[in-house]
Specification:
The protein is an alpha/beta fold and 701 residues long. 40% of the residues lie in helices and 18% in strands. The protein is built from 24 helices and 22 strands. It has a 7-stranded mixed beta sheet. Helix 9 packs antiparallel against helix 11. The longest helix is centred in the first third of the chain and has 33 residues. It is globular and about 95 Å long. It starts with 15 loop residues before the first helix and ends in a 12-residue tail after the last helix. Bound molecules: adenosine-5'-diphosphate and magnesium ion (MG). Magnesium ion binds next to helix 11.
């Protein structure tokens, strides 16, 4: 037992058997140690006092000190209130209470000096503070007269038992008294010394009762650093451990498949970023270790070509490769573009999806087993147990956030030696999040679009400006281009959404009548074959306008489409809007993304739309998304299996601390991967002790 840290919370003075269960349930605070790790969410600088004469109604929370000269009951019934008059020699301030009047009146000592804290308001020419926080100023509260006060989040249930922020602060004070000399250091001494970190005990004291702004800053830094550091240490240790345990296929040749393709079939010059990423993958796959790599690249950055070229390297080394995509449309599209890219090259490529015929499947299974099938492209169908390879060396997973971790793990097991794995995503994840969610993967980034693309112009229109939008559509169609119109379908069962979609479609057919115009429609309620037919009609230019739901969100490639119109855009999330926008701007022509919305926009919707109009950069958008929604809700994190339960750091704000923590952890792991050096003992112990509910490590693959 670690002394009083592990003492049950009910034994803390001020808690007792009645409040203990509330702290257990509401805050998961079981022990005194848990309590001191329940950190404030904000601080208010109470080092400054205002002279009453200088106070006006525009000030935020302020603090004044003075003598209460008298009280008075004003008004009647529900409007009844208690007014106390405070003076500091420069003026008189009214302090007002509507509730708890009796209690306040009894406890006020006439002529004693008080400190009042709150938001001043101006009313009928007089200035008052309603429901101020009031503390008596005296010798034993001397230290309070110039301090930074911590505030704690509390729940309604807690408040009912008088466990408000102030009460928690009092409990913290009691707890820290019990713990003096018992908060043992959790980082090695050599490390705290080297980095100049504040000690743990001092940090815990200062986080609740800062001695001053500088002490608070150092305490926060130390605690944030430690929290992020151990996560990084664990991730990097996991990675080192895996590289140590699993051998990988060594791809040391670049041979005929790759070279023939490169010299005779490549339809365009690779971008610098594509070249760099292929080099990174080659180096990794040639190292003898198993590759686990995340490839991030904005929509349209040319990830498919990279996937094909690394598959060719696998073939050059005598291995099979597979590519998995989340939908049939996408898998088919990959298959078609791969076939087109390869031209007449003798590579055996097959497509396997849910709708593959039995006869096709039999051939595929046979060729996979005897090794004559080089590259298999498909959907989830690839995961079925009957799909077995002779020698699978490279797995590419596209739009990986659509796949669960379990599905990824299944592909691993398709070979005795696990294949190299490349997961590709067009949903950029903020760097800080990638370092945490995919912290044990290597990351490659394609940060450059193929040349000649004009940045998409994004415009926001309120719905009543629809006519202008139709004009733009007509002009674009006249010029031979095509248009998407996307309706929100938040839950596939929402009747109203379907009604909007269908009415929208009928309206468009009226405004854009046959035979001059042809309008198609796709949504999730259609059969897969119907959907594919409609998509094909659009792709081949038979329809100029496609009315759709977000089924077209991911990956669909129709370079001739130049306008993306998003209906009720205020209802979409940022990353979804960005994905949808990525459907246009794939050719050399100027493309447009039109965000239609209602007039009433909530604060967040407005910010989302503004962000979209302001930037085309997926990473910037991902950062904004994380700031708006918090890291826990970002697409891709839920499926990753990591529960975000950071106590003090915030991935949206603490990027620098995180990078620092990762660098430090990485240096340590490089020098001592298994943490066996005596001075590192404490690191290993702490890492193992990282509570299970903190991060779910088992789920990271
Ligand atoms: P994404 O990264 O979104 O999957 P794609 O692989 O679908 O992007 O590529 C988008 C389009 O750009 C495709 O039509 C593809 O053929 C083309 N493309 C890819 N790389 C290049 C390049 N280096 N130069 C010109 N066009 C390219
Ligand atoms: Mg793609």
């Amino acid at each position: 037992m670690r002394g009083n840290m592990e003492l049950e919370i009910k034994f803390l003075p001020g808690v007792g058997p009645r409040r203990a269960p509330i702290l257990n349930q509401e805050l998961k605070v079981m022990t005194i140690g848990d309590l001191v790790y329940y950190f404030p969410f904000k601080y208010v600088d109470r080092t400054k006092f205002y002279a009453i004469r200088d106070v006006n109604g525009n000030l935020p929370n302020i603090q004044i000190k003075g003598r209460i000269t008298g009280t008075e009951m004003v008004g009647e019934g529900r409007k009844q209130r208690l007014v106390a008059y405070m003076t500091d020699g420069t003026g008189i301030m009214e302090l007002v209470w509507f509730q708890g009047i009796k209690f306040v009146k009894q406890s006020l000592k006439p002529n004693a000096v008080y400190i009042a804290f709150g938001k001043p308001t101006e009313f009928n020419g007089s200035i008052k503070i309603v429901h101020p926080e009031l503390d008596e100023s005296g010798p034993d509260t001397e230290k309070k007269e110039g301090y930074i006060q911590a505030y704690y989040n509390t729940t309604d249930k807690m408040k009912k038992s008088f466990l408000n922020s102030k009460a928690i602060l009092k409990l913290q004070s009691n707890a820290l008294q019990q713990l003096r000399g018992q908060i043992w250091e959790t980082l090695p001494a050599w490390l705290t010394q080297k980095l100049g970190l504040m000690g743990l005990e001092e940090s815990i004291f200062n986080i609740h009762f800062p001695a001053g702004p500088e002490e608070l800053r150092r305490a926060e830094f130390r605690l944030k650093f430690e929290e992020l550091f151990y996560i990084q240490l664990k991730l990097l240790h996991l990675q080192a451990d895996r590289q140590h345990k699993f051998k990988g296929h060594r791809f040391d040749v670049v041979g005929d498949y790759f070279n023939t393709f490169y010299h005779h079939h490549l339809p365009f010059e690779l971008t610098g970023a594509q070249k760099r990423v292929i080099r990174e993958i080659r180096k990794d796959a040639g190292s003898g270790k198993q590759m686990n790599r995340l490839l991030q690249g904005d929509v349209g950055s040319g990830k498919t070509m990279v996937a094909l070229m690394v598959s060719l390297i696998a073939m050059d080394n005598g291995f099979q490769a597979c590519m998995m995509a989340p939908t049939e449309i996408l898998a088919t599209q990959h298959y078609n573009s791969v076939m087109k890219f390869l031209g007449g090259m003798s590579v055996n490529v097959k497509l396997l999806t849910g709708s593959s015929k039995l006869s096709e499947r039999t051939v595929i299974h046979q060729e996979l087993m005897d090794g004559t099938l080089n590259l298999l492209i498909g959907t989830h169908a690839l995961l079925e147990d009957v799909v077995t390879f002779k020698n699978l060396g490279m797995v590419v997973i596209d739009e990986q956030h659509r796949f669960g971790v379990m599905q990824r793990a299944k592909l691993w097991r398709k070979n005795f030696i696990p294949p190299h794995i490349l997961v590709m995503t067009a949903t950029p994840i903020p760097r800080t999040l990638a370092m945490t969610v995919y912290g044990d993967l290597d990351v490659s980034v394609i940060d450059e679009l193929p040349p000649g693309r004009k940045p998409i112009r994004t415009l926001h229109y309120f719905e009543n400006k629809r006519v202008l939008v139709y004009e733009l559509m007509k002009k674009e169609i006249e010029a031979g281009h095509q248009v998407y119109i996307v309706y929100p379908l938040i839950s596939e069962s929402e009747k109203l959404d379907y009604k909007n979609l269908e009415e929208g479609y009928e309206h468009i057919v009226q405004v854009f009548p046959q035979p001059k115009y042809h309008v198609g429609i796709v949504h999730g309620r259609m059969k897969a074959t119907e959907k594919d037919e409609e998509m094909m009609r659009f792709k081949t230019g038979k329809t100029q306008i496609l009315v759709a739901t977000t089924v077209i969100e991911v990956g669909v490639d129709v370079p001739n489409a130049s306008v993306m119109i998003i209906e009720s855009s205020e209802r979409f999330g940022l990353s979804q809007l960005h994905q949808l926008r990525g459907r246009v701007g794939r050719g050399a022509e100027q493309s447009y993304c039109i965000l239609l919305s209602g007039h009433k926009l909530g604060e967040d919707s407005r910010k989302r739309i503004e962000t979209m109009v302001a930037t085309n950069d997926g990473f910037e958008i991902a950062e904004a998304d994380m700031r708006l929604r918090g890291p826990g809700d970002i697409e891709g994190t839920q499926q990753s299996g990591i529960a975000f339960d950071l106590k003090i750091s915030n991935l949206a704000r603490d990027g620098q601390v995180l990078q620092y923590a990762r660098d430090v952890a990485s240096e340590i792991i490089a020098a001592d991967p298994m943490l066996e050096i005596p001075g590192n003992e404490i690191l290993r112990k702490q890492m193992i002790a990282l509570r299970k509910n903190h991060l779910n490590w088992g789920a990271i693959s």
